[in-house]
Automatic annotation (TrEMBL):
One Pfam family cited in the UniProt record for this chain: Methyltransf_25
Gene3D superfamilies (UniProt xref): Vaccinia Virus protein VP39
Residue span of region Disordered: 24-43
Highest taxon, organism lineage: Eukaryota
Residue span(s) of domain Methyltransferase: 191-290
Protein name: Methyltransferase domain-containing protein
Cross-referenced InterPro entries: Methyltransf_25, Methyltransf_Superfamily, SAM-dependent_MTases_sf
GO molecular function: methyltransferase activity
Organism taxonomic ancestry: Eukaryota, Viridiplantae, Streptophyta, Embryophyta, Tracheophyta
C-alpha cells in the first residue's frame, strides 16, 4: 500500500516539491490494467509566484493580450500536447480520426439536453479550440490529450499506460483511504463524476467500485456522446454508467443521493465563482458521510503556465482560489490535501 498521510493545508496554494520514490503494485477487481500505486513526499501548498498580481503574472497577461502572440502561444500549447503524445507513441491523429469517422454522431441526440443554458464562462475558447469544449474535434482529441497529460506527470514510466495507471491508481487509493478513515458509511454505492469529459475518469471510478452505480455528468454533449459511444464498445458492466448533460453547479439531481462526488481535472477551467458553485452543489448532492474529491493541477513551471494560460482562460483564478477553504466554507469537514503524483493534488472532504 502507498504511504498516505492526510495533511490539512490552510494556505491557499501548492508549492510542489514532490519526489517519486517508489512504485508498488496493487491488485483489485478492475476492468483496466492493475494500477501502479506510487508514494510521494508532500510539501506545503503555496501560491505560485507567477499567479495573481505579480510582475511575472502581469507580463504573461500582457503577452497573451497581443493577438498575434496569443495565436502563437495557443498553437504552441496545442503542439506541446500533440508532440508529447507522438513522442510517447500515442496515436493522436489515428485516435481522433477513428472517433470522427465513427457512428458517434448518433449518440448526440440521445444525450443532449436542448433546454440547457450554458454558463457564460463555458462559452470561452478552451484548449486552443475556438468553440471550446462544444466541438467534435475537442471531443475526439480529449482521450489522447488525457493520455499525454498522464505521461507528462510520470515521465519515467515505461509506457503511457503505466503512467496513467500510476496517476489514476494513486488518485483512487487516496479516495478509498480518505473514505475509510473519515466516512461513517461502510460502502460507496452511488458515484457522480462531474465534468466527466469523454468518460476516462468515470470508467476508472466504475472499475474501482464495480458494485456502485456511477453517473458521468458534463456540460458538453459532444464529450458525452463520445463517452457513451466508447462505453458501448466495451464489455457490458453489471451496473452500466449513466451519462447526464447538465451544469455541475445546478444538476437538478436529487439531494442526498450520492456517496462520492468527483471533480477530476475540472476546476482549473473554471472561474472562482464556478468553483464555489460546484463545491456547494456537491455538498447538496452528497449523503451524510459522503465525500467530495477534487483532483487537479498542483504547480506548473512558468514556461508551461504561460503556454497553458493561453488556452485556459481561468487558470490564474484557479491558482488564487483556496480550494480547501472553499470546501470548509461549504460545510465540508475532514478537508485534506494530498499530492497524488508530481503534477496533481487531490483535495477531499466529507459531509457531516
Amino acid at each position: 500500500m502507498a504511504l498516505y498521510t492526510p495533511i490539512h493545508h490552510s494556505s491557499s496554494k501548492l508549492s510542489l516539491q514532490s519526489k517519486l520514490f517508489s512504485t508498488k503494485t496493487r491488485h483489485g477487481p478492475t476492468r483496466t490494467q492493475t494500477p501502479h500505486v506510487s508514494t510521494f513526499e508532500e510539501g506545503q501548498l503555496e501560491q505560485p509566484k507567477w499567479a495573481g498580481e505579480t510582475p511575472l503574472s502581469r507580463f504573461v497577461a500582457a503577452l497573451i493580450s497581443i493577438k498575434p502572440l496569443y495565436k502563437i502561444l495557443k498553437f504552441g500549447a496545442r503542439q506541446v500536447l500533440i508532440s508529447t503524445a507522438e513522442k510517447n507513441k500515442i496515436p493522436w491523429r489515428e485516435m481522433t480520426k477513428k472517433i470522427l469517422e465513427s457512428e458517434v454522431y448518433k449518440e448526440f441526440e440521445t444525450i443532449q439536453d436542448t433546454c440547457l443554458v450554458y454558463p457564460d464562462y463555458y462559452l470561452n475558447p478552451f484548449h486552443a479550440y475556438d468553440d471550446g469544449n462544444l466541438s467534435w474535434l475537442a471531443a475526439a482529441e480529449a482521450e489522447a490529450a488525457t493520455m499525454s497529460i498522464g505521461k507528462r506527470a510520470i515521465p519515467n514510466a515505461s509506457s503511457v499506460d503505466e503512467a496513467n495507471q500510476v496517476v489514476r491508481g494513486n488518485w483512487l487509493q487516496a479516495i478509498e483511504q480518505h473514505y475509510q478513515l473519515c466516512s461513517v458509511n461502510s460502502t460507496i454505492n452511488d458515484i457522480l463524476d462531474i465534468g466527466c469529459s469523454v468518460g476516462v475518469s468515470t470508467r476508472f471510478l466504475a472499475d474501482r467500485f464495480p458494485s456502485a452505480k456511477v453517473t458521468g455528468l458534463d456540460l458538453s454533449p459532444y464529450f458525452l456522446a463520445v463517452a457513451q459511444f466508447k462505453e458501448k464498445e466495451m464489455v457490458p458492466r453489471k451496473n452500466p454508467i449513466s451519462w447526464v448533460h447538465a451544469n455541475g453547479e445546478a444538476t437538478d439531481l436529487p439531494s442526498n443521493s450520492f456517496d462520492l462526488v468527483s471533480l477530476a481535472y475540472v476546476i482549473h477551467e473554471c472561474p472562482t465563482r464556478a468553483i464555489v458553485g460546484l463545491v456547494k452543489e456537491a455538498f447538496r448532492l452528497l449523503r451524510p458521510g459522503g465525500m467530495l474529491a477534487i483532483t487537479d493541477n498542483s504547480e506548473l513551471s512558468p514556461v508551461l503556465f504561460t503556454l497553458m494560460k493561453s488556452t485556459e482562460p481561468f487558470l490564474d483564478e484557479y491558482y488564487l482560489t483556496d480550494v480547501e477553504e472553499t470546501m470548509t466554507e461549504a460545510s465540508f469537514v475532514n478537508v485534506y490535501s494530498t499530492l497524488t503524483d508530481p503534477r496533481h493534488r487531490t483535495v477531499m472532504g466529507t459531509v457531516p
